[in-house]
Design goal:
The complex is a heterodimer of chains A (91) and B (112).
Chain A (H helix, E strand, L loop, with lengths): L1 H21 L3 H25 L6 H21 L3 H10 L1
Helix pairs in contact in A: 1-2, 2-3
Chain B lengths: L1 H28 L3 H26 L3 H50 L1
Helix pairs in contact in B: 1-2, 2-3
The chains are: A mainly alpha (91), B mainly alpha (112).
């Protein structure tokens, strides 16, 4: 069951990265990257149990914090003028 | 008792995987940004909680359980906060674009 959950999360990560590539606006891409990061945390903790080394959970904790900081950072910069212009031209 | 814990852990992992997959299909197939946001936001916290609870039931070690609970709490706090910030930024951007379009059309109608 652990391996099945790992495979499901890998499939979901592929779907999220497809949305990152085809997303029409900037916010779609940020949303998909956020989802990708959350699923990466899950994948790291599941792979730790599959390989029998639960020490990977420390890396998962750090990764979730980095994911949050990166999303908030990109959103802070999205108030900038250039991003608004590029989002407008894509619509 | 042991078999019961094993079966319930497998059940939690299965439900979490199903919710993850439905969120992935939602982010690919929904037509609008806000609907995609709904699909991701609804499934993300619940699927993560289900999979982490399954892992907590799966292993007997106490320290690993504490780490998993830390990850669970952090995800439950971080994911709605990031979703709210994202929706807020997207809504502000949409409103500004609508205002710009309105101003442009007003300028055009007044000049013509």
């Amino acid at each position: 069951m652990l391996i099945a959950a790992t495979l499901a999360i890998l499939v979901v990560m592929i779907m999220a990265i497809m949305r990152v590539f085809i997303g029409p606006t900037l916010y779609d891409r940020v949303l998909a990257v956020n989802m990708f990061g959350t699923k990466t945390v899950l994948l790291i903790s599941l792979l730790g149990f599959v390989m029998g080394r639960p020490e990977f959970l420390d890396i998962a904790i750090v990764y979730s914090l980095i994911n949050f900081i990166s999303v908030i950072g990109v959103l802070r910069y999205s108030d900038h003028f250039i991003f608004k212009q590029s989002g407008q031209s894509k619509k | 008792m042991d078999a019961f814990i094993h079966i319930s852990s497998s059940l939690f992992l299965l439900i979490g995987s199903f919710l993850c997959l439905s969120g992935g299909i939602g982010i690919l197939r929904f037509p609008d940004f806000y609907t995609r946001m709904h699909a991701v936001g609804v499934t993300e916290t619940l699927a993560t909680a289900m999979i982490l609870i399954g892992l907590i039931l799966y292993n007997p070690d106490f320290l690993v359980d504490v780490k998993l609970v830390i990850i669970l709490l952090m995800t439950l706090f971080i994911s709605p906060t990031a979703g709210h910030a994202l929706a807020n930024a997207a809504m502000l951007n949409d409103k500004m674009q609508k205002d710009d379009n309105k101003q442009n059309s007003e300028v055009k109608s007044s000049t013509s």
